[in-house]
């Protein structure tokens, strides 16, 4: 009977597709898992239990979908914004910003004041169509149904939302018909008279939806002025206010152009910054057009100076010319401007690399033809990780020196099952591990550990604790100390028979330097009590009626049911973590090892003993399947019963629950509120001939 001792040294391939269960020849097979749930692939190779989610606040209206978006002034000044149905709320230092006393999220008293909020026009069904970009204290917001806006921070409880007051544009093309426009005066409020409807709104003339739209007018002296429409009389007459230089004459002229943004034409869907220009893109009427501001003057889109000369820093419009009309879905700025459309991916760069981008120095080149979903992609280093049009494939849009072009390999090709239902949102966490987080349409949280330089692309799934729990939105901001990034989420749960939505953030679970479990945070929708010894914990109304898991002074405590917002403990404790339980599972692929006549696949095998190389771990179960698990012992008679046990690091050699089968799966389960990190797995394997 052949005996072998294979070793699994890392888990960098993450969870692999069921279609790969026969691919023992694949290099990634040895480093992959059949199941990796509520576990994180670390860039060094280990697989670690994820930290729990901390409760911050219930959203304003739990009956409606809500989204979180980041506001990052700097690494040390970051906010999370709750976008709901016609409002925004704000979070800082883990607590919701209140109009009254500030929230203290790490005590049993929280959200004691009224939430500070700002009214918005964005309805529930529009929230996931919002696209943002930021410059210092100003967040620029694009949505196809609404005038572009800015959200400006003046203080923690002083935010303003305002429509962008565009200066001189952007505009559609110059009139090419015989239709003239004439002004009733050279300044102030004037009547604009068109000689015909031809050339105006597809030959329908002025519409009531043109109110607020800009007009650029070239007078008889060939000078340009610009106006805003304030009222509409009929298809050939509108009232407008001259905002630019006064006209030198009112004579009717064919030199005019209409604004590109309006209720008539639609508003831009995408926004970003590139080379000191604010760039909008994709209106209803012009889905393939990008609208570049004047250089370093973000609200000014003047295409020429007053005399009609095009300058290097003038605003301009560039329309991607392709054989199909495919809407621009995203833009990401780096050395070049990467652009994703429904039909392909492009780069926008300078025609002359020695000069900045300008109206006469712009080059757009198609790179790939996969097509993009309308989900803002994260930028990771020099790569843009975008979602393909169907919403299931994550592609790495990156420049290849060898071909002098951009390619877009499929990062989910070895785990295509994991995104099967589609992805609705993505966010990038740079520290402590490089992870792209995604909210799946069915509410599952996905993570992809991505460290291209080390060839680490490891997928993992996360089922958050609680009844009918679904992750609906994800975003990342730096933590208050700037030492790591925090994943925030909107999580829908059923609590006490009622559907609720909570804003929560994921903890690290176990921070650097921790040697025991006193401050281990491995439960969801969690709150922590810290202070003098107590026998009960209050302030848990958000978990009313739920069976909760408790970690008291570092030791797992019997579960409790929350009643009247509190639980009673079986002793007095100074540090208590309370939340919803979740289970972490690591299941290996079928072990491949040498047999007498070749592969061990398809032959009966038995794992007799096994050595786990662990890091800061306590409380673990193992076995050949999830329904046959034994406890891995950690405590000894020398451990103090009333003290938090020391975390175990090293090799743990144990008997394996014996079972002859053809699979030889190894399943590791952590269902206690305790840490678990697997560094390596070393089984002793017996294999039969058949």
Topology:
Elements: E1 3-4, E2 14-15, E3 32-37, E4 39-41, E5 47-49, E6 53-58, E7 67-74, E8 77-84, E9 87-92, E10 95-96, E11 117-119, E12 131-135, E13 138-143, E14 146-155, E15 158-163, E16 181-183, E17 189-194, E18 214-218, E19 224-234, E20 237-242, E21 256-258, E22 270-274, E23 277-281, E24 289-292, E25 316-319, E26 328-333, E27 337-341, E28 345-349, E29 363-368, E30 379-380, E31 383-387, E32 394-400, E33 405-407, E34 423-429, E35 435-440, E36 445-451, E37 456-462, E38 467-478, E39 485-495, E40 498-506, E41 524-537, E42 547-552, E43 555-561, E44 567-580, E45 584-588, E46 594-595, E47 598-599, E48 605-617, E49 620-625, E50 628-632, E51 648-655, E52 667-670, E53 677-687
Parallel strand pairs: 2-3
Antiparallel strand pairs: 1-53, 3-45, 4-5, 5-53, 6-40, 7-8, 8-9, 9-10, 9-11, 12-13, 13-14, 14-15, 16-17, 17-20, 18-19, 18-21, 19-20, 22-23, 23-24, 24-25, 26-27, 27-28, 28-29, 30-31, 31-32, 32-33, 34-35, 35-36, 36-37, 38-39, 39-40, 41-44, 42-43, 42-44, 45-52, 46-47, 48-51, 48-53, 49-50, 49-52
What's this model, at a glance?
With 690 residues, this protein is mostly beta strands.
Q: What is the first-to-last residue Cα distance?
A: 11 Å
Radius of gyration: 30 Å
Give the biggest beta sheet.
6 strands, antiparallel
Number of strands: 53
Roughly what percent helix? under 10%
Going by helix content, strand content and strand pairing, the class is mainly beta
Low-confidence stretches: 102-111
Mean pLDDT: 92
């Amino acid at each position: 009977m052949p005996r072998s001792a294979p070793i699994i040294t890392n888990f960098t391939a993450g969870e692999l597709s069921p279609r790969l269960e026969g691919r023992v020849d694949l290099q990634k097979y040895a480093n992959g898992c059949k199941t990796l749930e509520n576990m994180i692939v670390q860039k060094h190779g280990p697989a670690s239990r994820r930290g729990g989610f901390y409760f911050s606040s219930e959203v304003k209206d739990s009956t409606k979908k809500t989204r979180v978006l980041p506001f990052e002034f700097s690494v040390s000044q970051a906010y999370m914004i709750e976008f709901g149905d016609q409002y925004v709320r704000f979070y800082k230092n883990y607590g919701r910003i209140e109009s009254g006393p500030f929230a203290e999220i790490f005590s049993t008293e929280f959200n004691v004041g009224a939430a500070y909020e700002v009214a918005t026009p964005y309805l529930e069904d529009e929230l996931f169509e919002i696209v943002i970009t930021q410059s210092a204290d100003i967040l620029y917001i694009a949505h196809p149904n609404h005038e572009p806006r800015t959200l400006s921070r003046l203080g923690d409880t002083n935010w303003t939302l305002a429509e962008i007051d565009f200066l001189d544009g952007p505009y559609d093309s110059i009139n090419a018909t015989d239709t003239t426009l004439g002004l009733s005066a050279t300044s102030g409020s004037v009547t604009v008279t068109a000689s015909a409807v031809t050339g105006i709104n597809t030959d329908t003339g002025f519409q009531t939806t043109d109110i607020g739209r800009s007009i650029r007018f070239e007078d008889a002296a060939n000078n340009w002025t610009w106006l805003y429409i304030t009222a509409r009389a009929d298809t050939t007459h509108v009232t407008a206010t001259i905002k630019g230089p006064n006209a030198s004459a009112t004579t009717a002229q064919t030199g005019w152009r209409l604004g590109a943004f309006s209720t008539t034409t639609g508003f831009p869907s995408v926004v970003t910054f590139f080379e000191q220009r604010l760039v909008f893109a994709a209106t209803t009427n012009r889905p393939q057009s990008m609208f570049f501001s004047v250089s370093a003057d973000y609200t000014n889109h003047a295409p020429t100076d007053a005399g009609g000369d095009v300058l290097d820093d003038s605003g301009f419009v560039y329309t991607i010319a392709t054989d199909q009309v495919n809407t621009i879905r995203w833009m990401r700025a780096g050395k070049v401007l990467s652009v994703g459309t429904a039909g392909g991916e492009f780069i926008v760069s300078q025609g002359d690399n020695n000069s900045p981008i300008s109206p006469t120095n712009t080059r757009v080149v198609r790179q790939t033809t996969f097509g993009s979903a309308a989900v803002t992609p994260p930028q990771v280093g020099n790569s843009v990780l975008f979602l393909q049009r169907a919403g299931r494939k994550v592609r790495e849009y990156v420049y290849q020196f060898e071909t002098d072009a951009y390619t877009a390999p499929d990062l989910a090709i070895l785990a295509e099952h994991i995104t099967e239902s589609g992805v609705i949102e993505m966010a990038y966490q740079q520290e402590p591990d490089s992870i792209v987080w995604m909210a799946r349409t069915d509410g599952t949280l996905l993570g992809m550990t991505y460290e291209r330089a080390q060839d680490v692309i490891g997928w993992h799934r996360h089922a958050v604790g609680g009844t009918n729990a679904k992750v609906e939105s994800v975003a990342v901001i730096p933590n208050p100390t700037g030492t790591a990034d925090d994943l925030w989420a909107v999580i829908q749960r059923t609590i006490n028979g009622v559907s609720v939505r909570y804003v929560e953030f994921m903890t690290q679970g176990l921070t650097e330097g921790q040697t025991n479990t006193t401050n281990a945070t491995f439960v969801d929708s969690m709150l922590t009590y810290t202070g003098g010894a107590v026998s009960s914990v209050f302030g848990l109304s958000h978990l009313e009626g739920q069976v909760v898991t408790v970690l008291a002074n570092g030791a797992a405590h019997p579960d409790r049911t929350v009643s009247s917002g509190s639980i009673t403990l079986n002793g007095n404790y100074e540090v208590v973590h309370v939340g919803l339980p979740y289970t972490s599972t690591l299941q290996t692929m079928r072990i491949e090892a040498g047999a007498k006549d070749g592969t061990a696949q398809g032959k009966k095998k038995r794992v007799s003993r096994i050595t786990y190389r662990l890091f800061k771990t306590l409380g673990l179960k193992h076995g050949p399947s999830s329904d046959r698990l034994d406890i891995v012992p950690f405590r000894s008679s020398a451990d103090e019963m009333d003290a938090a046990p020391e975390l175990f690091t090293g090799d743990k050699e144990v008997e394996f629950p014996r079972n002859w089968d053809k699979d030889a799966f190894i399943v590791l389960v952590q269902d206690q509120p305790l840490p678990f990190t697997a560094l390596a797995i070393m089984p002793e394997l017996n294999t039969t001939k058949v």
